[in-house]
Amino acid sequence: MVEGRLNRAATLAIGSVVVSLAVLALKTLAWWLTGSVALLADALESIVNVGAAIAALVAVTYSALPADDNHPYGHAKAEYFSAVLEGALIIVAALLILNESWKAFLAPRAPEQAGLGLAISAFASALNAGWATLLMRRGRAMRSPALMADARHLWSDVITSIGVIIGVGLVAMTGLLWLDPLVAALTALNILFSGFRLVRESVGGLMDEAVAPATMERIRAIVAEQAEGALEAHDLRSRHAGRFTFLEFHLVVPGAMTVRESHDICDRIEAALKAELQTAIITIHVEPEGKAKQKGVPVL
Protein backbone atom coordinates (compact mmCIF):
# COMPACT_ATOMS: atom_id res chain seq x y z
CA MET A 1 0.00 0.00 0.00
CA VAL A 2 2.77 2.42 0.98
CA GLU A 3 4.79 1.47 -2.11
CA GLY A 4 1.78 2.20 -4.33
CA ARG A 5 1.33 5.58 -2.67
CA LEU A 6 4.97 6.45 -3.30
CA ASN A 7 4.71 5.39 -6.94
CA ARG A 8 1.69 7.67 -7.35
CA ALA A 9 3.60 10.53 -5.74
CA ALA A 10 6.50 10.05 -8.17
CA THR A 11 4.08 9.97 -11.11
CA LEU A 12 2.51 13.24 -9.96
CA ALA A 13 5.95 14.80 -9.55
CA ILE A 14 6.84 13.81 -13.13
CA GLY A 15 3.53 15.30 -14.26
CA SER A 16 4.46 18.57 -12.52
CA VAL A 17 7.70 18.76 -14.48
CA VAL A 18 5.85 18.25 -17.79
CA VAL A 19 3.11 20.77 -16.96
CA SER A 20 5.64 23.34 -15.72
CA LEU A 21 7.65 23.08 -18.94
CA ALA A 22 4.50 23.52 -21.02
CA VAL A 23 3.40 26.55 -19.00
CA LEU A 24 6.90 28.07 -19.22
CA ALA A 25 6.86 27.73 -23.01
CA LEU A 26 3.42 29.37 -23.27
CA LYS A 27 4.26 32.27 -20.94
CA THR A 28 7.60 32.87 -22.66
CA LEU A 29 5.74 33.05 -25.98
CA ALA A 30 3.26 35.53 -24.46
CA TRP A 31 6.12 37.75 -23.27
CA TRP A 32 7.96 37.49 -26.62
CA LEU A 33 4.84 38.59 -28.49
CA THR A 34 4.04 41.54 -26.23
CA GLY A 35 7.34 42.69 -24.73
CA SER A 36 5.46 43.28 -21.44
CA VAL A 37 7.66 43.28 -18.36
CA ALA A 38 4.71 42.01 -16.32
CA LEU A 39 4.41 38.98 -18.59
CA LEU A 40 8.19 38.56 -18.34
CA ALA A 41 7.78 38.45 -14.57
CA ASP A 42 5.14 35.75 -14.98
CA ALA A 43 7.48 33.75 -17.22
CA LEU A 44 10.36 34.09 -14.75
CA GLU A 45 8.19 32.57 -12.04
CA SER A 46 7.46 29.66 -14.36
CA ILE A 47 11.20 28.98 -14.59
CA VAL A 48 11.12 28.60 -10.82
CA ASN A 49 8.15 26.24 -11.23
CA VAL A 50 10.23 23.98 -13.45
CA GLY A 51 13.13 23.93 -10.99
CA ALA A 52 10.79 23.32 -8.07
CA ALA A 53 9.01 20.49 -9.89
CA ILE A 54 12.33 18.79 -10.61
CA ALA A 55 13.37 19.21 -6.96
CA ALA A 56 10.04 17.73 -5.85
CA LEU A 57 10.55 14.73 -8.14
CA VAL A 58 14.03 14.10 -6.71
CA ALA A 59 12.75 14.50 -3.14
CA VAL A 60 9.75 12.21 -3.60
CA THR A 61 11.96 9.56 -5.22
CA TYR A 62 14.59 9.79 -2.48
CA SER A 63 12.03 9.79 0.31
CA ALA A 64 10.69 6.47 -1.04
CA LEU A 65 13.97 4.72 -0.20
CA PRO A 66 13.55 2.19 2.63
CA ALA A 67 15.15 2.67 6.02
CA ASP A 68 18.81 1.66 6.26
CA ASP A 69 21.57 1.53 8.87
CA ASN A 70 22.32 5.24 8.53
CA HIS A 71 18.65 6.27 8.34
CA PRO A 72 16.72 3.88 10.60
CA TYR A 73 13.63 6.12 10.47
CA GLY A 74 13.61 6.27 6.67
CA HIS A 75 14.17 9.18 4.27
CA ALA A 76 10.78 10.92 4.42
CA LYS A 77 12.22 14.25 5.56
CA ALA A 78 13.90 14.68 2.18
CA GLU A 79 10.61 16.18 0.98
CA TYR A 80 11.02 19.10 3.39
CA PHE A 81 14.37 19.96 1.82
CA SER A 82 12.61 20.16 -1.52
CA ALA A 83 10.03 22.54 -0.07
CA VAL A 84 12.75 24.75 1.47
CA LEU A 85 14.60 24.84 -1.87
CA GLU A 86 11.39 25.75 -3.65
CA GLY A 87 10.81 28.63 -1.24
CA ALA A 88 14.35 29.87 -1.81
CA LEU A 89 13.88 29.72 -5.59
CA ILE A 90 10.66 31.70 -5.29
CA ILE A 91 12.48 34.43 -3.37
CA VAL A 92 15.23 34.59 -6.01
CA ALA A 93 12.61 34.87 -8.77
CA ALA A 94 10.87 37.70 -6.92
CA LEU A 95 14.13 39.66 -6.66
CA LEU A 96 14.80 39.18 -10.39
CA ILE A 97 11.32 40.43 -11.21
CA LEU A 98 11.78 43.52 -9.02
CA ASN A 99 14.98 44.28 -10.91
CA GLU A 100 13.20 44.01 -14.29
CA SER A 101 10.35 46.17 -12.96
CA TRP A 102 12.74 48.95 -12.01
CA LYS A 103 14.30 48.89 -15.48
CA ALA A 104 10.83 49.12 -17.03
CA PHE A 105 9.94 52.10 -14.83
CA LEU A 106 12.99 53.90 -16.17
CA ALA A 107 12.24 53.00 -19.80
CA PRO A 108 8.54 52.09 -20.20
CA ARG A 109 7.25 50.63 -23.47
CA ALA A 110 3.81 49.74 -24.76
CA PRO A 111 2.99 46.03 -25.10
CA GLU A 112 2.54 44.69 -28.63
CA GLN A 113 -0.07 42.14 -29.77
CA ALA A 114 -1.59 42.38 -26.31
CA GLY A 115 -4.74 40.42 -27.19
CA LEU A 116 -2.90 37.35 -28.46
CA GLY A 117 -0.32 37.46 -25.69
CA LEU A 118 -2.97 37.69 -22.98
CA ALA A 119 -4.98 34.84 -24.52
CA ILE A 120 -1.90 32.59 -24.44
CA SER A 121 -1.13 33.62 -20.86
CA ALA A 122 -4.74 32.93 -19.82
CA PHE A 123 -4.58 29.43 -21.32
CA ALA A 124 -1.31 28.75 -19.47
CA SER A 125 -2.89 29.94 -16.21
CA ALA A 126 -5.91 27.68 -16.72
CA LEU A 127 -3.56 24.73 -17.25
CA ASN A 128 -1.71 25.65 -14.05
CA ALA A 129 -4.94 25.96 -12.07
CA GLY A 130 -6.19 22.55 -13.17
CA TRP A 131 -2.93 20.85 -12.30
CA ALA A 132 -2.60 22.69 -8.97
CA THR A 133 -6.09 21.53 -7.94
CA LEU A 134 -5.24 17.90 -8.73
CA LEU A 135 -1.83 18.14 -7.08
CA MET A 136 -3.20 19.64 -3.85
CA ARG A 137 -5.94 17.02 -3.57
CA ARG A 138 -3.59 14.10 -4.19
CA GLY A 139 -0.78 15.62 -2.11
CA ARG A 140 -3.08 15.93 0.91
CA ALA A 141 -4.32 12.37 0.47
CA MET A 142 -0.72 11.08 0.37
CA ARG A 143 0.52 13.56 3.00
CA SER A 144 3.40 14.61 0.77
CA PRO A 145 5.02 17.94 1.81
CA ALA A 146 6.82 18.22 -1.54
CA LEU A 147 3.66 17.80 -3.62
CA MET A 148 1.61 20.14 -1.42
CA ALA A 149 4.37 22.77 -1.53
CA ASP A 150 4.41 22.48 -5.32
CA ALA A 151 0.62 22.84 -5.44
CA ARG A 152 0.64 25.94 -3.19
CA HIS A 153 3.32 27.51 -5.35
CA LEU A 154 1.30 26.82 -8.51
CA TRP A 155 -1.79 28.40 -6.96
CA SER A 156 0.27 31.45 -6.08
CA ASP A 157 1.41 31.52 -9.71
CA VAL A 158 -2.21 31.31 -10.91
CA ILE A 159 -3.27 34.23 -8.70
CA THR A 160 -0.38 36.42 -9.78
CA SER A 161 -0.98 35.49 -13.43
CA ILE A 162 -4.56 36.70 -13.16
CA GLY A 163 -3.29 39.99 -11.76
CA VAL A 164 -0.75 40.27 -14.57
CA ILE A 165 -3.38 39.61 -17.24
CA ILE A 166 -5.66 42.29 -15.78
CA GLY A 167 -2.78 44.77 -15.48
CA VAL A 168 -1.47 44.27 -19.02
CA GLY A 169 -5.03 44.52 -20.32
CA LEU A 170 -5.42 47.88 -18.57
CA VAL A 171 -2.14 49.08 -20.08
CA ALA A 172 -3.38 48.15 -23.56
CA MET A 173 -6.74 49.88 -23.01
CA THR A 174 -5.59 53.04 -21.22
CA GLY A 175 -2.09 53.61 -22.62
CA LEU A 176 -0.72 54.13 -19.07
CA LEU A 177 2.67 52.51 -19.57
CA TRP A 178 3.71 52.77 -15.91
CA LEU A 179 1.01 50.22 -15.04
CA ASP A 180 3.06 47.44 -16.65
CA PRO A 181 6.10 47.66 -14.34
CA LEU A 182 3.81 48.41 -11.38
CA VAL A 183 1.92 45.15 -11.93
CA ALA A 184 5.24 43.32 -12.28
CA ALA A 185 6.47 44.78 -8.98
CA LEU A 186 3.24 43.82 -7.18
CA THR A 187 3.58 40.33 -8.63
CA ALA A 188 7.11 40.09 -7.25
CA LEU A 189 5.99 41.15 -3.76
CA ASN A 190 3.25 38.53 -3.73
CA ILE A 191 5.72 35.87 -4.87
CA LEU A 192 8.18 37.00 -2.20
CA PHE A 193 5.55 36.60 0.53
CA SER A 194 4.69 33.14 -0.79
CA GLY A 195 8.34 32.11 -0.74
CA PHE A 196 8.93 33.23 2.86
CA ARG A 197 5.77 31.44 4.02
CA LEU A 198 6.79 28.23 2.27
CA VAL A 199 10.27 28.31 3.80
CA ARG A 200 8.81 28.90 7.26
CA GLU A 201 6.39 25.97 6.98
CA SER A 202 9.07 23.63 5.64
CA VAL A 203 11.57 24.54 8.34
CA GLY A 204 8.83 23.73 10.85
CA GLY A 205 8.71 20.19 9.43
CA LEU A 206 12.49 19.86 9.67
CA MET A 207 12.28 21.02 13.30
CA ASP A 208 9.87 18.18 14.20
CA GLU A 209 6.77 20.26 14.84
CA ALA A 210 3.98 18.45 16.65
CA VAL A 211 0.68 17.54 15.00
CA ALA A 212 -2.12 20.10 15.00
CA PRO A 213 -3.99 20.53 18.34
CA ALA A 214 -7.20 19.08 16.90
CA THR A 215 -5.32 15.99 15.70
CA MET A 216 -3.65 15.60 19.08
CA GLU A 217 -7.04 15.71 20.83
CA ARG A 218 -8.28 12.97 18.51
CA ILE A 219 -5.18 10.89 19.29
CA ARG A 220 -5.75 11.30 23.02
CA ALA A 221 -9.39 10.27 22.65
CA ILE A 222 -8.44 7.13 20.70
CA VAL A 223 -5.88 6.12 23.32
CA ALA A 224 -8.43 6.61 26.09
CA GLU A 225 -11.08 4.61 24.21
CA GLN A 226 -8.82 1.68 23.34
CA ALA A 227 -6.74 1.35 26.52
CA GLU A 228 -9.24 -0.62 28.59
CA GLY A 229 -7.34 -2.52 31.29
CA ALA A 230 -4.60 0.09 31.61
CA LEU A 231 -4.50 2.81 34.25
CA GLU A 232 -3.08 5.85 32.53
CA ALA A 233 -1.24 7.17 29.49
CA HIS A 234 1.12 10.12 29.79
CA ASP A 235 4.00 11.97 28.10
CA LEU A 236 2.26 11.79 24.72
CA ARG A 237 4.51 13.30 22.05
CA SER A 238 4.23 13.62 18.29
CA ARG A 239 6.17 14.84 15.26
CA HIS A 240 5.85 14.85 11.50
CA ALA A 241 8.43 13.46 9.10
CA GLY A 242 7.16 13.82 5.56
CA ARG A 243 4.10 11.63 5.13
CA PHE A 244 4.71 9.86 8.46
CA THR A 245 3.47 10.81 11.92
CA PHE A 246 5.58 9.56 14.83
CA LEU A 247 3.79 9.07 18.14
CA GLU A 248 5.17 7.92 21.47
CA PHE A 249 3.78 7.75 24.99
CA HIS A 250 3.98 5.84 28.28
CA LEU A 251 1.19 3.43 29.21
CA VAL A 252 0.75 2.62 32.90
CA VAL A 253 -0.72 -0.82 33.66
CA PRO A 254 -1.42 -2.71 36.92
CA GLY A 255 1.73 -4.23 38.38
CA ALA A 256 0.25 -7.73 38.32
CA MET A 257 -0.66 -7.59 34.62
CA THR A 258 1.20 -10.07 32.41
CA VAL A 259 3.38 -9.04 29.49
CA ARG A 260 0.93 -10.68 27.08
CA GLU A 261 -2.03 -8.73 28.49
CA SER A 262 -0.22 -5.39 28.31
CA HIS A 263 0.98 -6.24 24.79
CA ASP A 264 -2.59 -6.92 23.72
CA ILE A 265 -3.63 -3.45 24.94
CA CYS A 266 -0.76 -1.87 23.01
CA ASP A 267 -1.76 -3.76 19.85
CA ARG A 268 -5.34 -2.56 20.21
CA ILE A 269 -4.26 1.07 20.62
CA GLU A 270 -1.83 0.89 17.68
CA ALA A 271 -4.45 -0.62 15.38
CA ALA A 272 -6.94 2.16 16.20
CA LEU A 273 -4.35 4.91 15.75
CA LYS A 274 -3.15 3.52 12.42
CA ALA A 275 -6.74 3.25 11.22
CA GLU A 276 -7.10 6.98 11.94
CA LEU A 277 -3.67 8.23 10.80
CA GLN A 278 -2.71 5.45 8.33
CA THR A 279 1.02 6.23 8.23
CA ALA A 280 1.51 6.54 11.99
CA ILE A 281 4.63 5.00 13.54
CA ILE A 282 3.91 4.35 17.21
CA THR A 283 6.13 3.63 20.20
CA ILE A 284 4.52 2.70 23.52
CA HIS A 285 6.55 2.35 26.71
CA VAL A 286 4.73 0.16 29.26
CA GLU A 287 5.19 1.05 32.95
CA PRO A 288 3.93 -0.38 36.26
CA GLU A 289 1.30 1.46 38.28
CA GLY A 290 3.90 3.11 40.51
CA LYS A 291 4.88 5.30 37.54
CA ALA A 292 1.44 6.91 37.21
CA LYS A 293 1.53 10.70 37.09
CA GLN A 294 -2.22 11.35 37.39
CA LYS A 295 -2.10 13.46 34.27
CA GLY A 296 -1.84 12.99 30.53
CA VAL A 297 -4.55 10.70 29.14
CA PRO A 298 -6.48 8.94 31.90
CA VAL A 299 -7.92 5.66 30.63
CA LEU A 300 -10.07 4.72 33.63
From TrEMBL:
Which SUPFAM superfamilies would you find in this protein's record? Cation efflux protein cytoplasmic domain-like, Cation efflux protein transmembrane domain-like
Membrane-related topology note: Multi-pass membrane protein
Q: Where are the transmembrane segments?
A: 12-34, 46-66, 78-98, 114-134, 154-176, 182-199
Q: Kindly give the Pfam families that the UniProt entry links to this protein.
A: Cation_efflux (PF01545), ZT_dimer (PF16916)
Q: Where is the Cation efflux protein transmembrane domain?
A: 16-207
**Domain Cation efflux protein cytoplasmic: start-end pairs:** 214-289
Keyword Cell membrane among UniProt keywords: no
Keyword annotations from UniProtKB, A to Z: Membrane, Transmembrane, Transmembrane helix, Transport
Where is this protein localized, as stated in its record?
Membrane
Q: From which residue to which does the signal peptide run?
A: none
- How is this protein named in the record? Cation transporter
Q: Which organism is it from?
A: Neoroseomonas terrae
**Family assignment from sequence similarity:** Belongs to the cation diffusion facilitator (CDF) transporter (TC 2.A.4) family.
Keyword field contains Transport = yes
Q: Which InterPro entries match?
A: Cation_efflux, Cation_efflux_CTD, Cation_efflux_CTD_sf, Cation_efflux_TM, Cation_efflux_TMD_sf, CDF_Transporter
Q: What is its main location?
A: membrane
